[in-house]
Every structure is written in C-alpha cells, then in structure tokens.
Amino acid sequence: MIDIKKLRLASPQSIVGVAALSFTIGAVIISASQKTEVANGLALTMVHLTGWRISHALLHMILGIIYPDKLPLFCALGIAWEVVEYSIGVYNEDEWWGGSMWEHLQDVISNTIGFFLGILISYSVCVDYSPKTGGK
Predict the structure, then answer these.
(1) What is the pLDDT of residues 4-24, one digit of tens each?
(2) Are 126 and 3 in contact, with CB atoms under 8 Å apart?
(3) Which region, left, alpha or beta, applies to residue 91 given φ > 0 means left and ψ of -120 to 50 means alpha?
C-alpha cells in the first residue's frame, strides 16, 4: 500500500506545480512519440484518441491518485487551460494549439475520466491514516 497523506495535504500552489511538471513530462513524451507515429490508427469516428488525449487522461489519473478530493480544482484548471489553448489557436491561426471546440471538449472529458480512474485507484491502493470521526 502507498502512504500519500503528506501529498494529500499539499497547498494549492504545490498541486499546481505538480500538475505543470506532469504536463511538461507528458508534452515531451508526446512530442517524441509523434516522430515514431505511435498514435496512428487510434482515431475513431467521433472521438480522436490521440496521444494528447491519452496524456491528458494519464496526467489527471496521476493527479486523481494523489489528490482524490481536489476534483473541482483540477476540473477548473483543465477547463481554464483549454480556453487558453483555444484562444491562442484562434489568435495565431495555428493548429498546434488544437482545432475545434469539440476537440478541446474531448480533452476536458479525457481529464475527467482520468481523474475518476485516479480516484478509484487511490481509494483502492493508497493508505490514508487520517483520524476517523464519530463511532468507537
């Protein structure tokens, strides 16, 4: 079992730092994978399961494992980032920042699914030594 009590008590600034570091690592991995065409063949009709979507889900799964009670914070950060990313793409007319609103919504959905998976994993394998209230 994993004892992550100290991580769960982290300040919002620390949480944002972990999120930024995780995103940076994911971006480097995806950038490297684009050269090897790892994600070819993963596009589905309505949902494009790209390496970026997978990295979004993995990042938020890790965050959900460490901070299972911070879902609203990470949803807000994920949505804020997608708005920034969409705005930069529109302003620069650059596809690097994503395409349609539907694509950005898929990223938010990936974030949410990943976070819920992280919560499930956290409550399954992580030890929480917080004091029990009520009862004997």
Answers:
(1) 666 667 777 877 787 777 767
(2) yes
(3) alpha
